[in-house]
Amino acid sequence: MDTNTAKSAIFDSIRRNLAESLPFDEIYNEHKVNRPQDEIIEIFDNSRSKSSLAEIFRENLRSIGANCEIVEDKSKAVSFIQTRINEKKLKKIAVSDAGLIGEIVGLLEFAGDFIRNASKEVLFETDLGITSAQFGIAETGTLVIESDKEFNRLASLVPPIHICVLEAEKIHQTLGEVLQELEKDLSRSVTFITGQSRTSDIELTLALGVHGPAELHVILIEKKI
Amino acid sequence: MNQQTSENFAQNARVALQDTTLRGALKNLAKTFGGRRKTAISSVENWEELREKARSIKDETLLHLDKYLEKFAENAEKAGAKIHWARDGKEACQIVLDLINTKNAVHVVKSKSMATEEIHLNHALENSGIEPVETDLGEWIIQLAEETPSHIVVPAIHKTKKQIAELFVEKVGIAPTEDVDVLTKTARNILRSKFAEAEIGISGVNFGVAETGTILILENEGNARLTTSLPKTHIAVMGIEKIIPKFTDLDVFLKLLPRSGTGQKLTTYQSLITGTKQNANGEGPEEVHIVLMDNGRSKMLAHPVTRQSLACIRCGACLNACPVYQQIGGHAYGSVYPGPIGAVITPQLVGIGKTKQLPYASSLCGACREVCPVKIDIPGLLLHLRAEITEGEANGKKSDSEAKGKFAESLAFKVYSIAWGNAGTYKFGTKTARFMQKAVAKNGKIGKVSNLMAKIAPPLGNWTEFRDAPTIAPKSFRDIWAEGLKEDLPANERE
Ligand code: SF4
What we know:
heterodimer; A: 225 residues; alpha/beta; Rossmann fold; 2 domains; 4-stranded mixed beta sheet; B: Rossmann fold
């Protein structure tokens, strides 16, 4: 198919139709339309509390049924994960290549395999995924992972449990702020994660873990000064 | 199974009204999503400001759509995506099919996409021996049932748990159960094997960012993430109206869409994909193809009233709020897009000929306009389309007086649609329509107008319950009516 023919036909049609609209635009005053100011509109949320960003993040994430803990340091994060590993009799754990996760994995006692850079087939056999994230968004309880900064984001999706360890200082208040940060050095793939994989496709009944993890634990490390 | 057509809308609707199970499901939908939406936006004090901003971003984009499209295509290609252009659905299907054939692919997975529903992509692929697998739970259910979606966000809303369980027993051989978790797990397991073998993943697109060439896909299940990252080739089918200019424009749309559609602050996952991976060991597909499709969209640019249709972000709020949709569901519309937004875009996409009844499938209560996050004046659009229909009929009339009558009727709709657009905050209800009918008749000035008004009054009014609608200030309407219509009416029809 000649894609150039199609392209110029589409552009011709767009321009022709917009021209046809001009006299009507005047009646409807729509010709005056300008782009709005570029400033991000923050949501003025009347339920916004005076808590720390980590606390707001935790509250929002818990409100949709995911787990979130604020801990003081890395060792607490390690023991949280250690408890899960001991409880669940896991065999294979997918981990991302984030520095923080490497350090944590080094401190865990685990008889099975930690798998970095898992192939598609292996990934499907893992029981837990451990990643970090590059940003948190407090107002929604969202994790943001950039592919160029942290390899492998599918560890956050394919295993039935996802644990994310994030330094609390990486949390921003709003989505808008994070978009501005992301834009500075845009990764080929950016993923936002807010809670567990869910569906309401059967009679609007909530079911978790339909394609991604049914369990999400976010551990925020808040260094107290 | 459900091969209903728009031509038979009235008949379809009558049948749907007898279906009490369907009505129960729809009531649940309106209550659940309507309620959640209300809660989600009630804490946002500057909701109106967000809506205004989103709409003006869309308006400005559409007025310069050529410029922004060009920019989007350029930037996406710079990042390694391949852009394809499709004038219509047939071309889009052919492009996808050619790509699949070039790759010698046989296993294709799909995530939920109304654009691909619109062009009946699955059908086209099946005709060529490719069986694409829908991976969104709701879409998979209706694919198994050989049906079509009846809602743009929850495609299988018309099916009960029991029906779905029976379907799974029959089609995938599970033991009888009505446990939603078991049904969901079944889908997870079966679809995982499909993901494992798929060479091609097909998705839709929610937003395309001109300045970066990024496409964004929103979802709750995670199947779109799998579809766009596991297979070696990702094909995204995207209507040309999905463009927004700036990366940070995503902010306002991501605030509006989930809150309006499902009442969530944000859906579980957003995938922001900009071209292909940078090195061979990176994540994601090796090839990303974006099919930019017109399929009737550019025609809608020709008038400010119809142009609004292209601002739609497919949140589904107008369906959930519509008293007509709540009574009859999606299939009765006989079109891919049902509900208020379906009633306005279907005639524009597929032509008015066979869809004449759809612009009348509304009581003009205005609930859709009120909930729409991008402030599309759906009632105004419906009236505009009714005007076009009657104008078309006028041109087809043999006798002069008949044509004149039709012509006057068409004008009435037009004036009414302007009045509507200017009515600002007034809510419109049947009460209002009736009130106006009386007001105009009593005035007795404009001969046949009361008859015309009777036609504007909702044909489906008696089906529905209405919220209390404050009456529109009669004067403002009458003024516009008198000024606008008198001049345009043939001399003998004036006062
Ligand atoms: S018309 Fe408005 S409310 Fe309806 S689906 Fe589109 S954006 Fe949502």
